[in-house]
Design goal:
Chains A, B: One of its GO terms (molecular function) is inorganic diphosphate phosphatase activity. 2 copies of one chain form a homodimer. Chain A is mainly α. Chain A has helices spanning 6-27, 33-73, 80-114, 118-154, 160-173, 175-208, 220-256, 260-282, 293-322, 328-352, 357-365, 370-384, 386-402, 409-424, 427-449, 454-503, 517-558, 571-642, 652-688, 690-696.
Amino acid sequence: MNLVVFAPVGATLALLFAVYFTRIIFKVDEGTDKMKYIANSIRSGANAYLKRQYKGVSYFFIGMFIILFILAQFNFVSIFVPFAFITGGFFSGLSGYLGMKIATNANSRTANACSKSLNSGLKVAFSSGAVMGLVVVGLALLDLSIWYYILNWYYKALPMAERVGYITSSLLTFGMGASSMALFARVGGGIFTKAADVGADLVGKVEIGIPEDDPRNPAVIADNVGDNVGDVAGMGADLYESYVGSIVSSCALAVSAGLSINGVTVPLVVASVGIIASIIGTFFVKSKEDVSQKVLLGALRRGVYFSSIIIAIVSYFIVVNVLGKEHIGVYFAILSGLVAGLLIGFFTEYFTSDHYNPTKSIAKASETGPATVIINGLSVGMLSTACPVIIVSISILVSYICAGGLNNFNQGLYGIAISAVGMLSTLGITLATDAYGPVADNAGGIAEMAGLDKEVRNRTDALDSLGNTTAATGKGFAIGSAALTALAFIAAYKDSIESLAIKNNLDFTFDLSILNPQVLIGIFIGGAVTYAFSAFTMSAVGKAASKIVVEVRRQFKEIKGLMEGKAEPDYAACVDICTKSALHELVKIAAIAVATPIIVGLILGPNGVAGLLCGATVAGFVLAVMMANSGGAWDNAKKYIEAGNFGGKGSEAHKAAVVGDTVGDPFKDTSGPALNILIKLMSVVSIVFGLVVVTFSLF
Amino acid sequence: MNLVVFAPVGATLALLFAVYFTRIIFKVDEGTDKMKYIANSIRSGANAYLKRQYKGVSYFFIGMFIILFILAQFNFVSIFVPFAFITGGFFSGLSGYLGMKIATNANSRTANACSKSLNSGLKVAFSSGAVMGLVVVGLALLDLSIWYYILNWYYKALPMAERVGYITSSLLTFGMGASSMALFARVGGGIFTKAADVGADLVGKVEIGIPEDDPRNPAVIADNVGDNVGDVAGMGADLYESYVGSIVSSCALAVSAGLSINGVTVPLVVASVGIIASIIGTFFVKSKEDVSQKVLLGALRRGVYFSSIIIAIVSYFIVVNVLGKEHIGVYFAILSGLVAGLLIGFFTEYFTSDHYNPTKSIAKASETGPATVIINGLSVGMLSTACPVIIVSISILVSYICAGGLNNFNQGLYGIAISAVGMLSTLGITLATDAYGPVADNAGGIAEMAGLDKEVRNRTDALDSLGNTTAATGKGFAIGSAALTALAFIAAYKDSIESLAIKNNLDFTFDLSILNPQVLIGIFIGGAVTYAFSAFTMSAVGKAASKIVVEVRRQFKEIKGLMEGKAEPDYAACVDICTKSALHELVKIAAIAVATPIIVGLILGPNGVAGLLCGATVAGFVLAVMMANSGGAWDNAKKYIEAGNFGGKGSEAHKAAVVGDTVGDPFKDTSGPALNILIKLMSVVSIVFGLVVVTFSLF
């Protein structure tokens, strides 16, 4: 039996359970009229933003489609590429859209459920996360399976070996649509959410001294909209892309590893087992009443652990059955990825949770003002990069050696690629534990604005602060898998260029030595590109936030009775500013990502491109980890102070900590997470435009 | 005639002119008794610190000497290495010591000269910088020449080709002493100076609201001491190391490039021509009375340009004479380095001077508080990395191709190495324009504390703020040359291991492909090491600064009449805290630098080490540029506000800008500049311990 059939089955199951969880959410009442009204404002703001974002993005997709279509006419790319590009983008966008749709319906319901009990609230919020997680993995695997079957049918006349080659090299280019959409969603949403958040905090908390989510703050709706368009829709598209990337890159390397169709089957089947394990895992997530945060975190973790154990067991049988006992090393590669993912999660928690020293030391530094908070937070983030780098390095070494790299280089590379699949196999449930955070955050906002009982807000706060930790864990996960996938992409890039060169009778051989100046310069430029990219995303947030600050100040000055709560602020104005700013900046940022590998390729040739990807992966990996962890630690240091330490809310220390948190916002939710997409988008663009580069490059 | 003789001649000339400039300084009177008293406090603080630092460092040097001596007994290293290690460290330390000695005698004299005229002040301060610059290049070239002649005599029985091989491979390891000392001086001094600066500012400027350099501030003497031990002694040792590194790495690559003794002669002679050109250049630095900052900067620049033109012309004849017309490409490599250095200077000025948009935008962001200042400053720094990376990349490509890399790979590498020599050939004068800054800074402090006329302070401020720009330029320069030198070191590392393997009948061949997991993991670890290293240096500053803050607060609370100026603070206590903190942290930091390449080598083998060096170079380069430029821009944004923009001194915007400046302090003066030393120290350690690694490594 061809086990590939498990892929569409798993995908369908995921989507069915997403429907099941959706129904759970909609059974809960939305609460009071005020809650409904607020939820509706958030929902319509989020919809309005996404509509405009997708409209903007569609120009890019149409433009790229035309370019790819023309290239296809001259045989520079396969004719499937432009269409696959569109479907990748479409499904990625759809994942984000559906996730957001559910999240904006779950927020008020979570708040309402929290007025009953903590466990009810957790159930609703987590169900919303689960929908997100399952939709992402379901649609991703569905898209891949459909294309797999289409290609398999189209090339059916070819002998198996050749057919697999065509299938995988086409599949490989399919990530481009997903990555492009992810970039827009992550960066656009990230700019939106953090501009609103930073702007709202700077005036509301710091200048005027009203609490977070106070309905008098004109940016408060924009802030809540942002949680949905950035942390939900953006993250969904982002992880859709990671997931697709890890699977297609291992499929692509299966051919040169000599594993043929069986090497393609393994990642697809492991992914679908992961989906089923995730579905099972979600049923283990439940909590007793009003327990500590630690117990709550345990509840979420339990689901992830159960899923991981299932995957660890079943993968063994998959590998033995599909590849045979002699390739048992591939199983250990999958396992090493799975374990590495869990370990990265642990260390991320250590560096960002206020139960441990690093975050506490940042809180302590707030006693000597904002400057020491920043210095301390940056150094915590920088130091924290060592752990994931060492973990990923060990994982690379283990999976390379286990998969047989010492005897067969290409099998080793396949091992590295499939370890990324192992790491992301639990995505269905890890994403669920991650995506529930913004829903809880929103629920807290609604509880505050609707004037619900203080007890309700305490419960949503408990859920929310847990969400900070799971979010940081999720990011570590996304970045770690991105590093592994990026390596696989570099290897796949080499394979792809070599086979193109042979097919087109071009005289080209790789020299990927780090002493080859083309490679070296590529590495340097790769390092700088990640920084320039982060600079643009950070400054976009800064610029947009400044506009929000000005607008909020204006409203407090001009709208009479606003401070006293007698007049209503103009929420829509802030939403509008965020939307415009976010979309405005996207053009420049997308241009960097797409143009860099092509320009570098045309000047330095494919060796330079490989160097570029390597440099971007290395510099991007450490920078992204630093940003995510500094940001998470600052956020939790602030929360630690708010819990009554070092003077508590309103103290000078708290004000200093808020500065740290504000700097951390674009770090952890805009620039940092965008880096892993940048790396992979550049990789896929390099592969898609490979023949163009080989044909026209100077070197 | 053997042109190598120019090296000791140039070195001697440099030292003679250093004496000449010293006499100019000492002709000026130290000023009032109060000025003498303050200058003396600073001097004795600086001496006390350096004494303790050298004592601490001597343990390290003795320990390493013993290890190297034992290794030499087993033929793991040449018997010259332990001794060269000591002399490198000694001369590097001596450069720093002499520079500091002069600077602490020139500060009050500059203040006194400024009470006469701006030009007189410039003359004294610049003379002090010139002593520093000439001592550094003089001692460096002297050390190299002495060893060259010793080795040449020792190996005189060998035929020329073999002799040159022995000479250059020994010379190569000599950088280790210089780099070790530079690390201690830069990091120790950097922690001292910034802890004092940050601590003094946080309490003085931000909390209590007294001006900078106010004598009531207990940390003010420590702050001024810091300028001398960090920005003078530290920088001197740092650039000594860069200079030596660039010369020895090109000598080492001369052999494999097939240029033999002539390839060694060129860098030595170009360096000595650079010295003479720098001496001539210093005489072009003079200013009219009380002119604008722009004119003043022009005066300094003129010296650098004249020197550059002389070098550009004379190098042509050197190359043609020594290597012959067929190697004229080497001349263009030198030229490309020279030009790249100047260009990096331009762009650094663009990003850090308040005449341009980037710094102005940071100043503007201060209107919305410290968080936006930080976000904006980080993004300016990140964006600014693109320029030096592109400039260095072009320089690599040009020098590689011109030197014949397309036909002979090793000649291309020699071209890259010698372009670093070209870049640093103007060091005598660029260091002079750089090292005069801290003297002017100190002079301003003394003027303030001694209660001199406001006009005097204005003049010292003019000199000082110019110093900020030249300092940032100098750092860009140091980092750019470090990138080129580091590449040369990687190439030299490969050569060195290969020849060791042949000599010792070891079965080892390099596979430096970026897809080789050993290389790849090495690259990843290299990236993480730079971040961990920066984390340690940053947090060391943060910790030490916190201690200073506590101490300063204590003194203001406990010493009655301090705030009113009736009682004197306990300056020595702050100096003592800084000294202890700085030395305490050095151990951990030195351990990282020395242990990392050895551990990575033992686990991953020489391929892993090459990857490590590559990763550290790339990540370190961009991180160091970012830190230097963010720091410089924050500093000047603050000064821009102090000049009356956005509300001026004492406004909320000013307070926000001070936070940026405070974060920037460890960026630009501790962590950033330490990175280029880290990179090169790891390179030399790798080379010295090469045979140990090849013999005992797992892979």
